[in-house]
Amino acid sequence: MKKADRDEALRSLESRDWSNAVVDNTPASGAMVTLGGRFRPEQADRVMAEAQRRGVPVSEALRDLVDEAFAARAAAGEEPVTVRPADLLRALRDAAEPRRPAA
Predict the structure, then answer these.
(1) What is the pLDDT of residues 1-30, one digit of tens each?
(2) Contacts from 41-47 at CB under 8 Å and sequence distance 24+?
(3) 3-state DSSP helix/strand/coil percent for the chain, to nearest 5?
(4) Domain locations in the chain?
(5) Average pLDDT over residues 43-47
């Protein structure tokens, strides 16, 4: 922050007249959000082993793994679709039936 900006900010705070104040909701550059989650022991072990293999903190390994998973999903074109249960069962039944030779 420049000295002039800092001085102006201090003057604004000291004046106690904040009637013209504007809320700045833009996230700070490089801001992080903390998420909590529960993992099965074998999942936690795998994540911690991956972090150790990469030589990074667990949080960084998790961020990278999430980014990699989303990138792979996007590259594969995997998007959620809605299928009626009856259509799904019919497709499974058709796939399971042995093929009959064409007449």
Answers:
(1) 688 888 887 877 777 777 887 888 887 777
(2) none
(3) 55, 0, 45
(4) 37-76
(5) 93
